[in-house]
Amino acid sequence: MVLSLLLWFVSFLALSPITLDVSPLVAQAPSDVRITLTIPRDPQNEVTCLIYDSDIGDSGSSCWEMLGDREPVTKQIWLKSLHRGEYDILADLQQHSGKHYQSRKHVILQ
Q: Is the whole model's pTM more than 0.85, yes or no?
């Protein structure tokens, strides 16, 4: 059961069209964090959201409407001067069909 669940999860991640790259993943605080989203052009793309939350209460989100196959493939976002803490960063892509694709990263600022 556990193995089949793990295989399903790995196959789900492989099919996700959204890629989230975060740098640095570990740094001294305060630190700027660069987030790069890569989303293939697709007329089904509707909305993308970037959400971050930390163990110290810092959080934020931003959503934007996608222009389907006219939207840029890569989008770069900076989170400036983040305080010491652990941050979960989530990118969520919603398509017109109702499907959601997500990618997550964890950042530690010491």
A: no
3-class secondary structure for 52-67?
A: EEECCCCEEEEEEECC
What distance in Å separates the CA atoms of residue 107 and residue 22, rounded to the nearest whole number? 8
- How many degrees, rounded to 5, is the angle at CA 100 between CA 99 and CA 103? 150
- Over 80: is that where the pLDDT of 2 sits? no
pLDDT tens profile 45-73: 999 999 999 999 999 999 999 887 777 78
3-state secondary structure of 14: helix
Fold of 17-109: Immunoglobulin-like (2.60.40)
110: CB partners within 8 A, 6+ apart: 26, 27, 28, 29, 84
